[in-house]
Write a structure and sequence with these properties.
Elements: E1 6-11, E2 16-18, H1 21-28, E3 35-39, H2 42-50, E4 66-68, E5 83-91, E6 96-106, E7 109-120, H3 122-135, E8 144-148, H4 151-158, H5 161-167, H6 181-191, E9 196-200, H7 208-221
Parallel strand pairs: 4-9, 5-8, 8-9
Antiparallel strand pairs: 1-2, 1-3, 5-6, 6-7
Helix pairs in contact: 3-6, 5-6
Binding site for Mg(2+) 2: 88, 214
Enzyme class: hydrolase
Protein name: Ribonuclease H
Amino acid sequence: MAAKKFYAILAGRVPGIYDNWPKAQAQVIGFQGARFKGFATRDEAEAWLKNPTSGQSGPGSSKPALKSSSGAGADTSPRDGVVSIYTDGGARYNPGPGGYGIVQVYNGARKELSGGFRLTTNNRMELMGCIVALRELEHRDKPVALYSDSSYVVNGISKGWAKSWRKRGWIKSDRQPAVNPDLWGQLLDLIEGLNITFNWVKGHNGNPFNERCDELAVASSRLADLPVDSGYKG
């Protein structure tokens, strides 16, 4: 879990700095054009309010693309007309009990999804978070911005690695078998025809939606009677 954060609300019901997410969330959820970021210290939050970053990551072409952000200045706030999806996943002990968490925001409407398996891996849960999010996607005709702290997932799609693996019968360029071909195949099928970008975000760096996804993933991994991850070959 991340340490205490400060949330700077630039555009919301009551702009300012908040020291907990529920209070900050009330200012932005359902507020069109909301703009905000989380920071480790109040000084950083105040500095951002005085000079907010103008660049925004989001959908570009119809092909999946990597847009990376690496710090507090990156703006990953939901935007009007764009389906913003935040995902996270992990497994305790890796491999071990695992879970994934998803937060989707579209024009102020928020949806959360989560799930878990009794024995799986970090990478499988990162992939599963994306798969479930896109499987449950309602607004398939809208631009989609997916945010993940997994470079494994983001690079696998953005750089075309997974597509190349599938073309070679799930064999990598080093002639070794690709790991998790069952999930990569599902993800490739789901992004087909979507106007989607995959964006890397630094985990536990003040992004409130990423932090919420982590909470959902951890909680799911601790549930009793989790199902079997039939695709995991331990």
